[in-house]
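We give its fold:
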Amino acid sequence: MTTDAYLADCRARLAFDLLSNTWNAVVIWVLRDGPARPGELRERIGGISPKVLTETLRRLEFNGLVERHAYAESPPRVEYELTALGRTLLGPIEAFGAWAFEHGDEVMAAQDRNGA
């Protein structure tokens, strides 16, 4: 492994890639209170389609951040919850949120000045 921040196998790049997808951080944050069914997640999040939620949950599961639990009931029930690894991202996500709360007006003002 190398410490060059621009190489594909850099650990920092891996971490930023995990959080660069808007929905990854949102789903992780919503799951902080415990397991939830997909319908519950959609209600809490708002504005996410079932397809995008499914893709996000699969991506988070692939990366070891979320676990899927299927229950053999009638009707079938599925829940998702954070893994121990997923919980380690709650602090960084909270820090990004705090930064956005503190500096969001400045960023939006800059966007307005630049015609965004």
The mean pLDDT is 91. The radius of gyration is 17 Å. The first strand starts at residue 66 and ends at 71.
